[in-house]
Amino acid sequence: MTEHLFLSEKGKKASSTLARVDLDVYFEALENRYHPVDNPSGALPMSVAENQLCWDNLKQKFQQITRKQDIPDWVASYGDAAGVASFREAIASFFSEFLFGCPVNPESLACFGGATGVIEMTAFLLANPGDTAVIPAPSYPVYTGDLGVIPGVKRYDLHTHHELEEIQNEISISLEKLEKTKNEIEAQGSRFKLLILTSPDNPTGMIYSEAQLRSIADWCIAEEIHLIVNEIYGLSRFNLDHPQLRESYPDPIPFYSFGKLMHEYQSPLLHHWYSFSKDFGISGFRIGVIHSHNSGLIQGSRNAGLSHSISNYTQWVVQEMLSDHDFLEEFFQKHTHRLTEAFLTVKKAMDEVGTPIQPAYGSLFAWVDFSAFLKEESHEGETDLWLEIFEKTGVLLTPTDGFGHSKKGLFRLVITSLSPNELKLAMERLQEFFKNKK
Ligand SMILES: Cc1ncc(COP(=O)(O)O)c(C=O)c1O
Q1: Is the CB of 116 within 6 Å of ligand 1?
Q2: Is 190:154 a contact under the CB 8 Å cutoff?
Q3: What angle do CA 328, 55, 252 make, to 5 degrees?
Q4: Where does the record place the Aminotransferase class I/classII large domain (predicted)?
Q5: Which of 28, 23, 31 minimizes the C-alpha distance to 48?
Q6: Residue 421 CB-density burial (10 A; 0-12 exposed, 13-18 middle, 19+ buried)
Q7: Which of 112, 75, 73 is nearest to 91 (CA)?
């Protein structure tokens, strides 16, 4: 193949491995994007985890900052590769007040280009090539590349459920399961080096209870395994007190931030990831954060992460935004309201057509079971259904590739990439499609 000429072995692999399998279809959907007047039968993409719910507020805030304030001179120079001190201080206060509920030392933070940069850097510094990262499955498909391409770390899918009913109130990861997984990995000649939990989870929207986090952290520390909790959706939680949601959660578990447990334990084996891509919906700003009490990890990322640094201009506008506590309070109130409404729109539509949907705690997703509509229970069957839905309705869902789910036919719907009216229309189109299929 000519495109492989002159490339390294890693280069050849990278040039023939797509970051996402659905990019062509996604760009096709964007070119034919729905518009109420100009393109009423156009496409409605619900495949990429973007959050457009509160960009109107944030845009206004950034415009105010850049119009009213002088740009400080330091933004034009090099800075700390892991984030300038004032930026890390602003993030430490934000974490402390809005996510963790405990003090955060800015020196325990390192900031890089999105969660993607942070995941890659953490895996690179904590694990050796050939080591294994265990991730409860199903999970974020791109972890595979973030862990694998540069750090050379393998992903192990630890199955937590087959049917949705199996995770009605919590994702079950018993210590016996972890022990068994460790033995299996070691028998294959690798090492169980990292355990990665995502809370709220992508794609299930589930969270881990304080008791679960404690027992898993104790086990990891005893086994000298690094436990990392990715709270990239930490402030994208649904209002479970909403009268139309309450009865689906008879015994809800409260959200407990891993940052709080880390503060108590001060262990060099516990780490936390965050990003501004989801809760704030600014994926294009590329801001991710590692929080760890392992000073070697923070210093190592500062030394080795130069290529992942965030532009100083971005750090400046974001630190100014974060310094306005009242703005943040209002922003997250609106975000919770709009996010809960979006989840309800999808839940009502799915309930009406009798499609099982996970009673999630948060995230930007609905995790739904379309298995009844598969022609065959296979990956091909899933891909056929995914494409058929897109061709007949214009609604583009996330393809099932790479989530590592054992049952065929479960799909992730991104509930925050469309306006409320567009989301309603997408649900009407899906309902029509499924009614015709029955
Ligand atoms: C669990 C998880 N981690 C990381 C990322 C990547 O985030 P970023 O855009 O900040 O690199 C995503 C994006 O969908 C995600 O869902």
Answers
A1: yes
A2: yes
A3: 60
A4: 50-430
A5: 23
A6: exposed
A7: 112
Burial class of residue 265, CB neighbours in 10 A (0-12, 13-18, 19+): middle
Strand-pairing partners, residue 157, are 135
pLDDT of residue 3: 62
Per-residue pLDDT, 324: 98
Closest by CA position to 229, among listed 189, 256, 191: 256
Cβ 340 under 6 angstroms from ligand 1: no
49 lines ligand 1 (CB under 6 A): yes
Which residues is 398 bridged to in the sheet? Answer: 412
- Looking at the CA of residue 113, tell me the nearest atom of ligand 1: 11
CATH topology of domain 2-56+328-437: Aspartate Aminotransferase, domain 1 (3.90.1150)
DSSP 213-258: HHHHHHHHHHHT-EEEEE-TTTT-B--TTSTTTGGG-SSPPPP--H
Tens of pLDDT, residues 133-160: 999 999 999 999 999 999 999 999 999 9
H-helix segments, 323-401:
325-352, 379-393
Pairing of strands 132-137, 395-396: unpaired
The predicted structure's pLDDT at residue 36: 96
* Euclidean distance between CA atoms 160 and 405, whole angstroms: 9
Q: Which atom of ligand 1 is nearest to the CA of 201?
A: 1
Measuring CA to CA, which residue among 153, 79, 95, 93 is closest to residue 119?
153
To the question of domain 72-324 being in CATH 2.40.240.50, the answer is no
d(CA 133, CA 230): 13
Tell which atom from ligand 1 comes closest to the C-alpha of 283.
Answer: 9
Residues ≥6 apart with Cβ < 8 Å to 23 = none
For residue 376, the surrounding DSSP H or E stretch is: none
**Cα separation of 154 and 115, whole Å?**
18
Residues whose CB is less than 8 angstroms from the CB of residue 56 and which lie 6 or more positions away in sequence, other chains included: none
Question: Which parts of the chain sit beneath pLDDT 70?
Answer: 1-3
The domain spans of the chain are 2-56+328-437, 72-324
Please answer whether residues 235 and 366 qualify as being in contact, where contact means their C-beta atoms are separated by less than 8 angstroms. no
Beta bridge partners of 367: 412
C-alpha 90/C-alpha 345 separation (Å) is 35
Which pair of tokens denotes residue 44? Answer: 């409605």
